C-alpha cells in the first residue's frame, strides 16, 4: 500500500530522511521535484563527497562508501549492489554531465565537505568546475590530488584556483611541471606530498605550516636545509611539524647541516628505532633538541637518491621521553610503547634508585634477545610501578 510520505509532519519526515542511506535518499529525490525540495529542507548532513574525474561519484558516511555509477542501459537504472562498506548504484547521469550530478548530490544531501578531489582520469574540465564550485560555496576539501597523466598546461592554468580552495588535510601532486613553473601556497593543509618538487624552494619550506611535508626530486641543498634546521631549533618555530622527508639531487657531503657533514646517522648495537604514533618511524637517527626542549630525530643519507628524514616528537612527550633516552639510550625505543605512560602524574617522581634497579632488569631481559612489544610493555610498567 502506497504511503503518502509528504503528508507526514515536517519533523517526522526529517527523521525518516535521516534514517535513509544515500541511495535511498537519491531514489526518493527522483520521485518528484517536491520530494527533492523537502529533502533539501532537512538538516545539513555530515556526509562527504569525492570525485576523481571520471563517470563516477562517491558519497561516504564514516567508513561506508556509496558509488553512483553511470548506467549505459536504461534497464540498469537504480540497479544496486550492496557490499557492506562498499556499495554501488547505477543511475542515469544528467544530460549536462557528471558535474551536474555533483551539484545535484551536494545540494540535495546538504553536503558541505569534499572528502577527496583528485585529477586522476577523465575530464580535467569537470574537476576544475568542481573546484570552482567548492570555492563559491566555501566548501572544505580534505584531500586534493593531481596525478601523473594530466595535461601540464591545464594544471598550470588551474593552480591559481587551487590557492583559493580550502584544502585542509592533504595536497598530493605527482605532475612533472615545466621548468619555469612557480606556485606559492596561500594556506597549507596538514600534509603536502609533492613529487617532482623542484619548484618548492627554501622560502616556501620556511613558510610552511604543515604537520607532514614530503618532497621528492627536490632541489633543496645542504645550505637550504641547514637554514631550515637552524630556524626549527628556535623555540616556537614550526609548532605543527611532525615529519619532514626530502629526496634531493643537491644533498651531498660538501657542507654541514647543524655543524655535521652528511651522512648524519648513528651506529648503535642494538639499533635505535623511534616511532611517533601517526607519523611514522625513524632508525639510527641523531637526536636534535630545540630551545624549548622539543626533541627531533634527524637522519641524512647520501647516494643517487640522497635523503633527509626528520621526525619530531610531540612536545607533550618530549620531556618524559628525554628522561627515558638518557637512561636507556642503548636500547630500541618505541614511542607507541611508552605513550601510554607519559601522562602518568607520578612519572617525574620515580625514585632514582628504583629506576636503576629496573635498568638492571631491562639489561637482563634484553640480553635474551627480545625487544618485543610485550617485553617493552612489561619493562616500562615495572619502571613506573616500582
UniProtKB/TrEMBL annotation:
<feature type="domain" description="F-box">
    <location>
        <begin position="2"/>
        <end position="50"/>
    </location>
</feature>
<dbReference type="Pfam" id="PF00646">
    <property type="entry name" value="F-box"/>
</dbReference>
<dbReference type="Pfam" id="PF07735">
    <property type="entry name" value="FBA_2"/>
</dbReference>
<protein>
    <recommendedName>
        <fullName>F-box domain-containing protein</fullName>
    </recommendedName>
</protein>
<dbReference type="InterPro" id="IPR012885">
    <property type="entry name" value="F-box_Sdz-33"/>
</dbReference>
<dbReference type="InterPro" id="IPR001810">
    <property type="entry name" value="F-box_dom"/>
</dbReference>
